[in-house]
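Re: export button greyed out
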Amino acid sequence: MRLIIFIFVLLTLQNVCSQTLTVTSPGNILSLKFELKEGGAYYSIYRFGNEIIKPSRLGFILKTSPNFDDGFSIKNSKTNSFDETWTQPWGEVKDIRNNYNEIFIELEKYSSPIRLMNLVFRVYDCGIGYRYEIPEQAALSDFEIMDELSEFNLSGNHSAWWIGAYQWNRYEYLYKNTPLQKLDTVHTPLTMETKDGIFLSIHEAALTDYPSMTLKRTGGNNLKADLVPWSDGVRVKTSTPMKTPWRTIQIADTPGDLITDYLILNLNEPNKLDDVSWIKPGKYVGIWWEMHLGKATWGSGERHGATTENAKKYIDFAAKYDLDGVLIEGWNIGWDGDWGANGDIFNFTKPYPDFDINEVTLYAKEKRVKIIGHHETGGGILNYEKQLPAALDYYTELGINVIKTGYVNHGQNIKRVDEKGETVKEWHHGQYMVRHYRKVVEEAAKRKIMLDVHEPIKPTGIRRTYPNMMTREGARGQEFDAWDPNGGNPPEHTLILPFTRLLGGPMDFTPGIFNLTFNNEKPGNRVNTTLAKQLAHYIIIYSPLHMAADLPENYEANLKPFKFIIDVPTDWQETVVLNASIGNYLTIARKDRNSEDWFLGSATDEHGRTFNVPLNFLTAGKKYLAEIYKDGEDADWQTNPYSIEIVEEEVTGSSILKIRLAPGGGMAVKFKLVD
Amino acid sequence: MRLIIFIFVLLTLQNVCSQTLTVTSPGNILSLKFELKEGGAYYSIYRFGNEIIKPSRLGFILKTSPNFDDGFSIKNSKTNSFDETWTQPWGEVKDIRNNYNEIFIELEKYSSPIRLMNLVFRVYDCGIGYRYEIPEQAALSDFEIMDELSEFNLSGNHSAWWIGAYQWNRYEYLYKNTPLQKLDTVHTPLTMETKDGIFLSIHEAALTDYPSMTLKRTGGNNLKADLVPWSDGVRVKTSTPMKTPWRTIQIADTPGDLITDYLILNLNEPNKLDDVSWIKPGKYVGIWWEMHLGKATWGSGERHGATTENAKKYIDFAAKYDLDGVLIEGWNIGWDGDWGANGDIFNFTKPYPDFDINEVTLYAKEKRVKIIGHHETGGGILNYEKQLPAALDYYTELGINVIKTGYVNHGQNIKRVDEKGETVKEWHHGQYMVRHYRKVVEEAAKRKIMLDVHEPIKPTGIRRTYPNMMTREGARGQEFDAWDPNGGNPPEHTLILPFTRLLGGPMDFTPGIFNLTFNNEKPGNRVNTTLAKQLAHYIIIYSPLHMAADLPENYEANLKPFKFIIDVPTDWQETVVLNASIGNYLTIARKDRNSEDWFLGSATDEHGRTFNVPLNFLTAGKKYLAEIYKDGEDADWQTNPYSIEIVEEEVTGSSILKIRLAPGGGMAVKFKLVD
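Workaround output, generated via the alternate export path:
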């Protein structure tokens, strides 16, 4: 651990009612100013001395007064410097440095009774995290928070990329890019660019027993925390001592620096699992896309997808091409009928009669292929939690240690039995569901089961603490291309995700569709990319579990480009962003965790692009064979998406890679160390 | 020369009144579509198949009809491919590739008499140039153009960086950044960014006997050529055969790619001078800044700057520190009185009595220092042209072969004697002055004299044809900081120039002020940068003649940072843009033309920045000693501009340079090859 000189300035008593504390980041880039103004608590952030977050309110409104909103004085404060490098068991990078200066502030409010509230600010060079603590105190044990007052008072009407909160589904929207002042209430991460080319992203870390924070614009450029409420209007049901999640603000000079900043992971608790040897990233295929195309069904019947025979076909395919797993959706009783409206009909230990789960798991074991289990809950939490231990044990006994979960359900529609015994309906993002998602992670961890959660709570870095929480959905995945009546995901979609949703954590986007137009199945739909861009997604979208989402026959018919999917790892030593423009283009290089090989992905929106990218990330003095998968010169996502050129070149760290991306196109490269 | 496959598509007769010709760039990135619509001529530009310039009008209105505006038919067209690499005698890069596909279109108009007009389009991967030719024809010899119809019909309301045309001075304004639809009439280069992150810049090349093209918004996103008129309202006085300047449109994926694209030079005629051995880039000091500070005067009197003694002091200083030249302003009769209003009083062969030009030039010769001559005309063209041969001969006889010229004069105020013998007043940018500036270049070339033109016509690449046309002003230089009542150039100014004005050619910005605040001389003014940013300007602003603009005593008092100015070359083998954001920041590396050393400059606007820049431009396998001049950790242009840290590090092409720029700060690095 390096020694850091800690700068701590206490400017006391600017006037009788004002007290100010300041902390500067280790590299003297950001500074955090905390102040009490007439008893109200505020923070502001300066970057190189320029105010980038203007004075922003802190505090809470409780159900029973007195509130944590004014009348504060500083009882005590202490500072601390921290510098540690820790290792991820798997991830987008192996080693992460956690280097910050911290200030811990104890506030008290001279109401009757006296109330205590603490604040912790961690100031990094690339961002700030802060959290509240309500410590044990005489006059407060169980309590209910009606509003969190945290503000993010931005310094200008920045350009913002956002999805709205409180809509019909979970997070599966196309991002909008508008001036800040055009947004109302939005999910985080909320990413912004100032007119001077500085990039910010607001999110939260370590969301464990608290509602999701959405952001509501309260006027001008000021955003305020808007906690997703319980059905009774209370935001948080809690008791002392408690700590909130960290409110995080990443700040960087380039959009690429947002991607390679690990503030959110750093603010989570270290790994709680002793043994992580059973946690393994990988690639999978599965019985899935054929349902989206309408060629098969989740429910029983003639076209039932999850049959013993079909499962064996996928197992054979995975074994042949050395893919790690096979997902099987629609294997269990409950899919017939309106399961989306009433998830209570799912049975998690009872397969359909045409799916011999013992035969399938045995066959998979022989072929050294993992079966990825599936729990679609339809949002029926009461039903799922009742079955959860048995459901997890059932899979464990079958040797299945990866489960994809699902919570397809709309709006404020998650049934709960409340304190009075009445059935009420909750949001996906409220404290009730946050608790549920966490419970499943913990129960799975006990049984050494990895998770891939669809319709999840947003990622806030829990994977650091529970590395079995591998990946999740929580954004518009590629399946929208199969059936969205509005035309699917436009080319820019995957050029926005890495700078927004993916700042929270990995995403199971399900890339790799090779039959882009599927005119036989869904003539009105298609995938809005070139073939080469599908390959680029394996690099620019990070996930420790990546699907090869298309049907085996479409890969068998295109074995040359499929080789990239076979070769690409899902666990990385290093990640380097080579160029980046939000919503426009992105080029990332990543080094395999288990070899000396590097991989590169580059992708663009609907505009063609050309770049010359230095390959200086390659080890100096070494030679590499570059296997380049690029758009053909006549490629175009609309008119000629299948045109792909695959070439080999010998390169070194001194080489320049010429990248030419077709409209809606991409490039993928494997750099194999040869000498 | 490489063989290029040329794609030429002729789509005839889409309808009876429409004829279309298409040419694609060598790398199939841009394509140019020419079409006749109901007899009117239009072009449009596609990039990767997406329309980036919508159909835009072509043609002329003449003083005597019939006009070149409609009734056209295509008489003939031919195509040609060109690929050649040529060498600059000096410049920002040694070798430039000129690679385009061309279409030459002969139009005829069946008026009575028949009129002929040709169009040439050169289509590059990074831009397009087009020009008109009015060939010899029966019914047209001398003629006058009242309006050029050329349009640039942009595809959106792009973000634009611009200075307004037809204002009080020449080009010395702060750039504005607004949506395209907020501008009225502007100078070129006009640089824009689309909402999808594509960068465009419109300018012209080879402006030799034609007025400057300004751009007027005619509604929506459409710009139209607005040629600067003669005093009688005529725009162009010309005769057949004639060729217009090239209208140029640079198009790139990054702002840095605009800087390293040499479209404008490529569209100029090759070097016309047989011997260029006498043309030498270099650095100079001079009797100049002390006048701006008010410590000395141009005119005679007690504080006269251009005395024999003072000149010798500068010569001694230049000799001691191996600087190439000494500029002496205010040496000749004419500076007393209102010279700005009446340049006719300047005498270009008569020194002031206290300036012994023979003694000074002899002293300079002994010390191996060049004297840079000075011709301030005050815009008195009649007076200057009358004396020009004698004035140039006078300097030649004294051994002076570099002249700085000046044309300080405001608005439409250049006196001319018109065809009727009456005195009229012309703009700096009209055809009259374009002819004058060209005449001086040619007269100087005959005598082997290099030019540094202040208050010039804008640069359009003439330096390719006449490499004695070294550098010029034509933008707000650093002298505004000495006396601008509005506070001088803000920190962003030199982060806009490289992407706008400098796309036309080099600029004599006069960087290197070390006494940034000069409270003794001008307490209300200052230079709005840190000291390190002054050094960075020598790299980010390209000029073959760079001034070390401050007073010798300020350098003598700061010899450590001054070493960078002593070391930095002004003639380059290569230029690489490492990062770039218009108005925000810029980092450039350049390789010395005469050694294996590299130099790097990085600068920011009023915001501090951090970057990690790979040094892959250095030769692989070699070691370099990096001499780094960087902002101190506590530096800030407003509060602490002098804080600078100078460190040495050994680096290779695999190293990453950590750049930390203070608000308004910069960094300069010399990479000296050691092994």
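The first helix of chain A runs from residue 255 to 259. The button fix ships in the next patch.
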